[in-house]
Specification:
The complex is a heterodimer of chains A (287) and B (188).
Chain A lengths: L2 H23 L5 H9 L19 H5 L6 H5 L5 H14 L2 H6 L1 H9 L11 H4 L2 H18 L9 H12 L11 H16 L6 H5 L2 H12 L8 E4 L9 H5 L5 E2 L7 E2 L9 H5 L5 E4 L3
Antiparallel strand pairs in A: 1-4, 2-3
Chain B lengths: L1 H28 L3 E8 L4 E3 L6 E3 L2 E4 L5 H6 L3 E11 L7 E7 L4 E5 L5 E2 L4 E2 L8 E9 L9 E11 L5 E10 L13
Parallel strand pairs in B: 1-5, 4-12
Antiparallel strand pairs in B: 1-2, 2-3, 5-10, 6-11, 7-10, 8-9, 11-12
Classes of the chains: A mainly alpha (287), B alpha+beta (188).
């Protein structure tokens, strides 16, 4: 199979997993939320409100700096998902949730493929992505103390839920607009989605769940069991196809220098591994 | 050294953007949406906010505080909504959402609970102790917004769908300026 076919196949597979993400997290399906409700009926997941808000990936992270919310978190096992489970997966295998399961990340990425590349802005060329990603996350944690929380008012998961609900027949989520909600939706879809190279501008800069997983993945990359995207300098031809395919803008190819993958940004989607014509990208442990 | 400084500047700028967004969102939210949690059978309502939640007994939405985006796209639609209306009693209940008042506004119920009937306001399933349901009441006012201090006043009632008994109630005031109107008293 050629690298082009392998890449195409990988993208189809990812699309399938994003569909699974919809079924697991989003109303009217929300199977993961329902399962958590059945397992822990006395917790928030057992309230019977089965949508992405019950399995929120943002609030529990915000609660980390809010001691008065710790009892709520402790009594609500589904809130361990962004705080413990996804970082644990990122520690072992990279941020697989971001690259394979998060519909809110995938939606602008795949929608953005409809926009010609010449209209897009490559954040990597203009913005220092890693500091911005972590700076936003620090701001997200401290905002309740400095100004006001943006956890719920500036949330792309809510908009994804509204889109899924609308597609499945419930238009009520589209009936009300708030100022910050409109700004969040526009920023998520238009400048950081459709008109950003890769379509993952929101994930790269404004997603706290992505930042935590990126941080864990990046700092633990050299551990012997850490499975990550890695390059083989001996066989790399420097053709740049990996960098061009990387929606997270995590790969740098410089003439006469080693191809580098920034594992603080990479979401382990494996597009680069499958699409590398020389086979010099791999997903595995440190050699 | 220079790289570290650059990273610190980018990071600080990102955090500053978040603080600015938070300040803006915080200042306009009270004019756009009433958000809270509600218990039944009980009185008292937790109103959402960035700090530890306080028990209060009423909601005031002051439309003069709306942000410019809201003013531009949809100044006349106010939502009073809760993700968690919880049964804190000891027996399962079938509930009905009802509104009293809200003259001058078109009102429409919605919920993500599949057993909710927006026409009757009834949640058809039994809500077990500890379980909750979400709901939103969309209030649509004529454009341009009516003048006068208070646009509309009403009460959201959670009632027993079988007996009609009132289980919980939340007074809501939609006003131009919250500071100029009295909201009500807490937890009577």
């Amino acid at each position: 199979m050629s690298s082009k076919d392998a890449l195409k196949r990988n993208r189809f597979a990812r699309l399938g997993f994003f569909g699974l993400g919809v079924v697991l997290f989003y109303a009217p399906f929300a199977l993961l939320v329902r399962a958590a409700g059945a397992l822990w009926p006395a917790s928030l997941a057992g309230t019977g409100v089965n949508d992405v808000h019950t399995a929120c990936l943002r609030m529990p992270l915000g609660w980390l700096t809010q001691p008065w919310m710790w009892p709520t978190m402790a009594g609500n096992p589904i809130s361990y998902l962004p705080v413990l489970v996804l970082p644990a997966v990122a520690l072992a295998a990279g941020p697989l949730f971001c690259g394979w399961l998060c519909p809110a990340g995938a939606f602008p990425e795949f929608l953005g493929r409809l926009v010609p590349e010449r209209f897009k802005y490559d954040l990597k060329d203009h913005v220092s992505l890693r500091p911005v990603r972590y700076g936003f996350f620090v701001g997200f944690l401290l905002a309740p103390f400095v100004s006001a929380s943006i956890c719920c008012s500036f949330c792309n998961f809510t908009h994804m839920q509204n889109i899924v609900s609308a597609v499945t027949g419930d238009l009520s989520g589209l009936a009300f607009f708030s100022s910050l909600g409109v700004v969040a939706a526009l920023v998520w879809i238009v400048p950081l989605g459709l008109f950003t190279t890769g379509g993952r501008g929101w994930c790269l800069t404004l997603c706290p769940a992505g930042a935590v997983q990126g941080l864990v993945s990046g700092v633990s990359a050299k551990l012997p069991f850490a499975t990550r995207v890695r390059t083989d300098a001996a066989t790399c031809t420097g053709c740049g196809s990996c960098s061009a395919q990387c929606h997270m803008r995590a790969i740098t190819v410089e003439p006469e220098a080693e191809t580098k993958v920034d594992l603080h940004l990479c979401d382990s989607c494996l597009d680069c591994v499958k699409g590398c014509p020389s086979g010099s990208m791999r997903y595995g442990r440190p050699s | 050294m220079r790289r570290g400084l650059s990273a610190a500047l980018w990071g600080s700028a990102a955090a500053a953007v978040v603080f600015a967004l938070g300040a803006w969102g915080g200042s306009v939210s009270a004019g756009e949406r009433g958000s809270f949690t509600m218990n039944f059978p009980a009185s008292g309502t937790e109103v959402g906010g960035p700090s530890p939640r306080e028990l209060t007994g009423y909601i005031v939405v002051s439309v003069d505080d709306q942000g410019f985006v809201k003013r531009l796209v949809q100044p006349n639609v106010i939502e009073v909504a809760s993700h968690v209306v919880r049964n804190v009693g000891d027996k399962p209940l079938k509930i009905r959402f009802a509104k009293e008042g809200f003259a001058g506004a078109e009102a429409e119920w919605h919920s993500r609970d599949t057993s909710f009937d927006p026409k009757t306001g009834v949640v058809e399933r039994l809500i077990a102790p500890g379980e909750a349901v979400d709901f939103g009441l969309l209030l649509t006012f004529p454009k341009p917004l009516p003048t006068g201090q208070v646009l509309s006043k009403g009460t959201i009632v959670v009632a027993d769908a079988l007996t009609g008994a009132k289980l919980s109630a939340l007074p809501v005031t939609i006003a131009h300026d919250a500071a100029a109107v009295a909201g009500g008293s807490c937890c009577e």
